Amino acid sequence: MGWKGQATVEDEQNVTHKGYFAAGLDSDPELASAISGELRRQQDCIELIASENIVSRLVLEAQGSILANKTVEGLPYARYYGGAEFADAVEGLAIARARKLFKCRFVNVQPHSGSNANAGVFLGLLKLGDAILSMNVAAGGHISHGHPATLTGRDYRIVSYGVSRESERIDLDEVRDLARRERPRMVIAGGSAYSRAIDFAGLRAIADEVGAYLLVDMAHFAGLVATGFYPDPLPHAHVVTTTTYKSLRGARGGMVLWNDEAFSGRINAGIFPGVQGSVLLHGVAGKAACLGEAMRPEFAAYNRAVIDNAQTLARALADTGLRIVTGGTDTGLMLVELAARGLTGDVAAKALELAGLAVNKNVIPFDARPPEAPSGLRLSSNAGTTRGFGVSAFEMIAQWIDRVLKNPDNDSLIGATRKDVAALCAKHPIYQSRP
Q: What is the pTM for the complete model shown?
């Protein structure tokens, strides 16, 4: 009889349950049911939420690959764990593609999210208590830029700029006055609900005047930047952060991009070990996949269509009497004020979801209502364009939105609209076999 640490042949055969390396999702009916339900929802409904898109099967397979088993820490070719030959190849590929796509010198593809990318930059470049000048969430900024409920809002002194009450656009004079008075260490541009082009050169001039870094968070327009349909922040910003989904149409996660080698050690250390641990290597593979797709000519055509479709949707909704914040959009997203329908965003979003149209409630600039029941909706053309919807489809979508918002309690009308939505989706199917 062997000592306690020795395993018999029988022990070795029983250390994993039967079918461990062979059984798939069908072996867990509860989980399979929930995932199948989400698949049907995506197939039969129209996604209009600005922070979502539809990835390719390539991205799905990369993210669901054998890389889920591998743990690595540190940068490629300088890992703390062994067995990293192919991990380095995957991450190196993602970095090389991002550098080429955005024409920058340095990239970190490890952030688990856009918020982690921002937090890592803050930790690497700032001291606790430093002042950050960023767009107010109520005006369209992102919560990771200093909302009081976040670590950023707790650990740094946040000064917020908004938009002009008349134009609902960024007022550089206001930003300059705030910067001169508050002397921030960092100025942040970009947000989650601002639909217009941003003057990055003007913001860099303000940052330079007060000795601040300029950080641009391009999460909602990165795909447009990559294809030349939106101003490029990289010639002006000290650092750029982004997510890799939304307009990049890929894996959920974040990236940091910069050109000055002097920042490299601080930014990389801010990400790891600063705000996160080991790399989600399967996520990095998904990023590599979508960055490769973004280099193809059809990706430029996609982003051109994103803008055409968004502008069509905005015009068509305005024709129904709904007000579009700023009067239009330069990106794939827009804010819609609901005052003309006498509705709040929460009520409108629920009714539209029942009709097969997924949107999100959103505050609008100078909103007198709370975020839980705001005055607006945020819409996007990103996912619908990925499905192949053109301008005529988005004109129909505007009509359906108008129909539901005029009759949010009419179950039969909502049911009929859902059938119309499903019919359009059937003409533009996604994932015809289970991914």
A: 0.94
